């Protein structure tokens, strides 16, 4: 069993033991649950991502109103303990259905999700550690990286054109070998296939990662591990609009909603490689006018602490001024090869000096 | 170059030659374009999918109004010819941006998509043959199948837990080897991972395919090829609601919109394995009440020629009567293993006899 799983199993058992010991000692069992309310979600300048503050609530078995929630949490804890022991995983949806057989079942999926999140926070583990997997798989990865999943080794150059897919069980992946110097992640699979076809992995000694829109948790964790364990710089090339910016920013600085696990998911050293408002002007890209919803969103980003550094403020203001946005694929105006032959080398030069 | 590419290249060249010859002979060049209007989309009982009827329009270089469309089609044809020669592909979006440099560019993406579709129909090829790829990748495949993409062989048992991803260039895949007797496709990646974990590939000697919702073109073509080239029965296990039914039906009988390529995409021999209204009753599954939109959709399906056989009519009517729907994952009510240990064996027995 992997180290993280062993630790999680121990934490789960300890939670149960503590409750039983309290009961044996005729003390009323209590569980401290850190608060996830907006007022307790704080942007940490040092860590460069959102964290939870120190507010918390106490759930006591001596309080009739809290009995149900504690009961549900213990059922979930027990379910996860069995999952880990059996080496299995389940989706939150599956657990919700399994809970139909419990003495304290859930009214709806939301209640079940909340209790799982409470348990993550109480134990200081991720839902993946608990064996509770998200529905969606991660990004596509292409390039000179060999990973191991269980007893199988996978070479991300030999997994086919669509690459190696990051599984939800991302912490069980071992990095066996690599021969790359950086990671270039792109928003769309259209651009991913462009980079593969134009041999960007050779030209830039890089891994190519196709995010498929908003990055899945598994993708974010994988990028963080590449950055921290393999010391690879991570660059993100998205569409030049508020949505493209934010897909990158959630990879870089995490989300407020996941403040309790951002330390496992955020890659503060990752850099946005484009498309910027400056690129739109410098490369004379085909554009679409900003829509009302884009403008509202850009103004929101200006008030967001994750966007407070000079680069972002300048680019967001410039985009509001030129009132235009552009897609990654718009570089094709100059031919399919342009993005790899001209744009990316120039931008990498700029960022890496 | 693959056979299909060679054929397509020849067709593209012939299209150009015909126009030049006409001009040299002082004849006005004309192109016959089969109509894609609703009145020309017909359900073919023998083929068991929609086809185009025999209505067509003629675009003539002698008609000023049609000059632009013919010009665009020839530019697209030329672009595709170059793609094939270079062994490249492009997304429709990329081609749209490339077209900025043409003498007859497009007003919007829709115009560009329409012309590409015209070209598919005029030449009797698919957009994939032309090198114009959709944005999205195909399904995840797990099990004893080895394929070749170019000079790389991929074993779908050794591509990691998330399996082998079907690339958009699905006709360039060669089936090298397999040791399975059937294919089981499921709607969600949650269910895909359940089947992998419970070793469904061993229990049922099957390939496990994770559709990720509505099946991509590449997935539909891949399933058809598995069924026709490898003679493997294909079963589809989706949610028990009109959307799950229809995801299966588009795999089985194609869509009206793609009438001109259904013969390449539809797998009329594929079978729906569940969840049915009968299953909801027999297995006493956890359900949600049908919403108004579900009821409207189910009634639409009853009027759809693809659903005219006895099985579908009975199940749709039964669902309208019990007013309930159920998800694939609801079998977890009986434990995570139940779907593989009990449900699927019983259903396969029923379908295979």
TrEMBL record, chains A, B:
Transmembrane segments: none
EC assignment: 5.6.2.2
Topoisomerase 6 subunit A/Spo11 TOPRIM domain segment(s): 183-348
Substrates-to-products reaction catalysed: ATP-dependent breakage, passage and rejoining of double-stranded DNA
Subunit structure comment from the entry: Homodimer. Heterotetramer of two Top6A and two Top6B chains.
Function comment: Relaxes both positive and negative superturns and exhibits a strong decatenase activity.
Name used for this protein in its record: Type 2 DNA topoisomerase 6 subunit A
Native source species: Methanothermus fervidus (strain ATCC 43054 / DSM 2088 / JCM 10308 / V24 S)
Name of the gene: top6A
């Amino acid at each position: 069993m992997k180290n993280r799983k062993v630790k999680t199993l121990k934490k789960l058992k300890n939670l149960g033991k503590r409750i039983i010991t309290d009961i044996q000692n005729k003390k009323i069992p209590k569980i401290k649950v850190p608060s996830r309310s907006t007022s307790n979600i704080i942007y940490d300048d040092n860590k460069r991502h959102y964290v939870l503050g120190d507010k918390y609530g106490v759930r006591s078995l001596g309080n009739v109103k809290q009995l149900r929630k504690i009961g549900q949490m213990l059922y979930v804890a027990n379910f996860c303990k069995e999952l880990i022991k059996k080496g299995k995983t389940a989706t939150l949806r599956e657990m919700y259905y399994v809970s139909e057989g419990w003495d304290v079942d859930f009214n709806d999926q939301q209640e079940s999700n909340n209790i799982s999140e409470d348990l993550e926070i109480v134990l200081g583990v991720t839902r993946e550690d608990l064996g509770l997997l998200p529905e969606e798989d991660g990004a596509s990865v292409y390039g000179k990286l060999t990973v191991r999943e269980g007893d199988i080794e996978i070479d991300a150059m030999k997994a086919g054109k669509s690459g190696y897919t990051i599984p939800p069980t991302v912490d069980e992946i071992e990095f066996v070998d690599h021969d790359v110097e950086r990671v270039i992640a792109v928003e769309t699979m259209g651009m991913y296939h462009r980079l593969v076809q134009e041999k960007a992995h050779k030209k830039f000694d890089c891994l190519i990662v196709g995010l498929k829109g908003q990055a899945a948790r598994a993708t974010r964790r994988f990028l963080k591990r590449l950055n921290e364990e393999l010391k690879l710089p991570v660059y993100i090339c998205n569409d030049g609009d508020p949505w493209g910016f934010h897909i990158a920013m959630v990879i870089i600085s995490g989300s407020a909603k996941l403040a309790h696990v951002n330390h496992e998911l955020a890659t503060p050293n990752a850099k946005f490689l484009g498309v910027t408002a400056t690129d739109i002007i410098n490369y004379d890209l085909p554009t679409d006018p900003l829509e009302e919803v884009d403008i509202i969103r850009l103004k929101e980003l200006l008030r967001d602490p994750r966007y407070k550094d000079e680069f972002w403020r300048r680019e967001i203001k410039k985009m509001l001024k030129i009132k235009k946005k552009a897609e990654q694929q718009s570089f094709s105006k100059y031919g399919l090869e342009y993005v790899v032959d001209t744009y990316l080398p120039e931008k990498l030069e700029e960022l890496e000096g």
